[in-house]
Design goal:
The complex is a heterodimer.
Chain A (H helix, E strand, L loop, with lengths): L17 E4 H20 L14 H22 L5 E2 L4 H21 L1 H13 L7 H22 L14
Antiparallel strand pairs in A: 1-2
Chain B lengths: L1 H14 L2 H19 L5 H8 L8 H26 L8 H12 L3 H36 L2 H18 L4 H15 L2 E2 L6 E2 L13 H19 L18 H23 L4 H16 L12 H16 L1 H7 L5 H12 L7 H5 L1 H33 L3 H20 L2 H19 L5 H23 L6 H4 L1 H18 L1 H12 L1
Antiparallel strand pairs in B: 1-2
Helix pairs in contact in B: 1-16, 2-4, 2-16, 3-4, 3-9, 3-14, 4-5, 4-6, 4-12, 4-14, 4-16, 5-6, 5-12, 6-10, 6-12, 6-13, 6-16, 7-8, 7-19, 7-21, 8-19, 9-17, 9-18, 10-11, 10-12, 11-12, 17-18
Classes of the chains: A mainly alpha, B mainly alpha.
């Protein structure tokens, strides 16, 4: 049982707020992205007005982006008190992990292996997942995907490991 | 006038073929099915189901995708009425009165009037599209590159003003989208741009990858954060068909909603989202007893639902006539067209009349189908709503993975989608709206192309944008909108529309 601090207005919310200023972080994020893009666009020629080069648009937009980044950061520094909500790291790890696992296994092992792996890994993102239920559901979904994408739609996705001759 | 009828006849003969009717039906059904599930909006739905259409001919594929689109719209309203959660953004207002009606045991009537209103709006919108198509394509053919460029600038400005949230943040997202669109090989010089030496993105980033990452995966991450409490109405759905009194009260709101929705849907930006809001506040303003709103007023369902459907359809006008997508869903449609080898733009209507008119006619058929299939199937939708999210999101993930892999048979694109999922989640966390980014991404390439052409034609003189009357008018309009959106009075009303 956690005792809520009445002085803290966000107490009682499930997600704890990170103590970072929203606009400042948003601004820094834009500036960093713009810097990376501008750096990559450095070797490209912006050309002249009559012959717009390949570099004009990337450079112009990244400068614009950086401008908005600065604006947002200043906005955050002066006044805007909004904070960033907590991140759901559990979600990030298992959901993205599941997708990466699918990408890694679909070619060598096929849909009938990659599909269940992705579903089972992703299901761990939710603390409410029940083992038996998700196993049954995964089996049904895998069969349904096989029927839909392979039997009905004939998509060229591998089904089983090629070693087995499929 | 006669032209219109013969054209629609051609369309009906294409859309009315057994195969296309079947595809339209299937699209509506699947679209509703997925639209009913909360947390999966139309963008993720279409991106996810894109592979279903790979084996079809272009006409059939687009008819099916369009069916999925308005099926998803309609499904979203069903969720709004029964569960108090909008299935997607366009149904947010329907929640207010629709769910109250459901609590009072009038869920069936709310669903019924939503379906009837949508059908009437859809019919009128179909006629509007058919009537506007010819003149607009003629106009579009007169457009030079400079005019096109100016038009897209105007479109993006609209998108910013009509989007929710902060204007500078929305503009920043558009810049980000344009920047992402430049990744890959430059069409003119053949140079690799912003690829960081990574061969896999030398052809540019696939639109479906961004859409699925930012609207599919990022949404899942956000939904996992806070568990929604789903209160499915356990009371009886009740009678489905509204009685005469209900219809009489609803007719005027339906027509007003259709008018508002048609205009806003045609404009770039979040037309289909803004329409329902505007319709709701109009109805509330002119009602004799505004206090009934929020407590189950049938006008509060009829008007917004019609506006939503009308807007969803008129959004096709800029896409089909000018080749410019007014919102993210239409941007996805462009992606689908490109996969099937169709170049969107004014030439479609003359070169592929069967495609053009067939698609328009199928919209009307689709609306009729929604009316017919949804009312008896509501029982199934209700049961579907009881599927918990813990089962839903793994299913969405596997569908998205298969979908993305199938577009180019590339596991790398699946990885890239995951990266965009993380990127989208970060942006959401930082308070950005991702829809403008998507629009900027799609328009970015087109804008660069038109800008280059315009500059070559004018020999590098920027005056070309001001010398040409069309482009000048469009740019002036852009400026007016920008200034207007910064005015305190308009800013305030914009805020109230969205907070209501």
């Amino acid at each position: 049982m956690v005792v809520e601090d009445p002085a803290e207005p966000s107490a009682g919310k499930r997600e704890r707020s990170l103590n970072l200023n929203l606009e400042v972080c948003a601004g820094i994020f834009l500036i960093a992205a713009a810097a990376a893009a501008y750096y990559a666009a450095l070797p490209l020629d912006a050309g002249s007005m009559s012959g717009v080069g390949s570099g004009l648009l990337p450079k112009a937009t990244s400068l614009g982006l950086a401008g908005f980044g600065v604006y947002l950061a200043l906005l955050g520094l002066w006044g805007s008190p909004e904070r960033i909500d907590g991140f759901s790291f559990r979600g990030i790890i298992f959901v993205l992990g599941a997708i990466v696992a699918f990408a890694a296994t679909v070619r060598p092992f096929g849909l009938l292996v990659a599909g269940p792996i992705a579903m089972l890994i992703s299901s761990m993102a939710d603390p409410d997942t029940r083992p038996l239920e998700i196993l049954l559901f995964t089996a049904c979904m895998t069969a349904a995907c096989y029927l839909l994408f392979k039997v009905v739609l004939h998509l060229p996705i591998p089904v089983l490991p090629p070693l087995l001759g499929y | 006038m006669w032209d219109l009828i013969t054209n629609l006849q051609l369309g009906l003969s294409v859309a009315g073929s057994l195969k296309n009717m079947g595809l339209c039906f299937l699209g509506c059904l699947i679209g509703t099915l997925i639209g009913v599930l909360p947390g999966v909006g139309p963008i993720a739905t279409i991106a996810m189901l894109l592979p279903l259409t790979f084996g079809l001919d272009p006409v059939g594929a687009l008819i099916m995708l369009a069916g999925i689109y308005y099926g998803a719209q309609y499904g979203g309203s069903t969720t709004a009425i029964l569960v108090n959660i909008p299935g997607e953004a366009t149904a947010v207002v329907t929640v207010l009165d629709g769910h109250q009606m459901a609590k009072q045991g009038r869920a069936g009537i709310a669903l019924g009037i939503a379906a009837i209103g949508s059908f009437i709006a859809g019919t009128i919108a179909t006629i509007i599209i058919a009537a506007a198509a010819k003149p607009l394509t003629t106009l579009a053919l007169l457009f030079g590159p400079a005019d096109y460029f100016a038009l897209m600038v105007l479109g993006l400005m609209f998108a910013v003003v009509l989007a929710r949230g902060s204007v500078p943040k929305a503009i920043a997202m558009i810049f980000f989208g344009i920047l992402l669109s430049t990744v890959g090989t430059d069409i003119e010089t053949g140079e690799e741009r912003l690829t960081f030496g990574w061969m896999e993105i030398a052809d540019g980033i696939d639109f479906a990858v961004i859409a699925m990452g930012m609207f599919g995966f990022a949404e899942i991450l956000r939904n996992l954060e806070h568990k929604e409490a789903r209160a499915v109405v356990s009371a009886k759905i009740g009678r489905l068909l509204p009685n005469m009194a209900d219809l009489k009260v609803s007719l005027a709101p339906i027509l007003r909603g259709t008018a508002i929705g048609s205009i806003l849907g045609f404009l770039p930006g979040n037309g289909a989202v803004l329409g329902p809001f505007a319709s709701y506040s109009t109805e509330k303003k002119i009602a004799k007893d505004p206090s009934r709103f929020g407590r189950g007023a049938i006008e509060g369902v009829a008007g917004p639902e019609s506006a939503n459907n009308a807007g969803a359809q008129t959004a096709f006008i800029p896409l089909l006539t000018l080749g410019i997508p007014p919102n993210a869903v239409m941007a996805l449609m462009i992606g689908a067209m490109t996969i099937h080898g169709i170049v969107p733009g004014p030439q479609i209507i003359t070169k592929q009349p069967e495609l053009f008119w067939g698609m328009i006619a199928s919209m009307w058929i689709g609306n009729l189908m929604l009316l017919i299939i949804n009312l008896p199937l509501i029982g199934i939708w209700v049961r579907l709503l009881q599927v918990p999210y813990r089962l839903m999101f793994p299913a969405i993930i596997i569908f998205c993975c298969i979908g993305i892999y199938s577009i180019n048979n590339s596991p790398t694109e699946v990885l890239l989608t995951a990266a965009f999922g993380l990127f989208g989640y970060l942006l959401i966390k930082l308070g950005f709206e991702v829809a403008p980014l998507l629009l900027g991404f799609v328009l970015g390439r087109l804008m660069e192309e038109k800008l280059r052409q315009a500059m070559v034609i004018s020999r590098g003189s920027l005056w070309t944008f001001i010398d040409r009357p069309v482009s000048l008018a469009l740019l002036v309009l852009t400026l007016v909108i920008l200034v207007a959106s910064a005015l305190p009075a308009i800013r305030k009303s914009r805020e109230t529309v969205f907070t209501e």
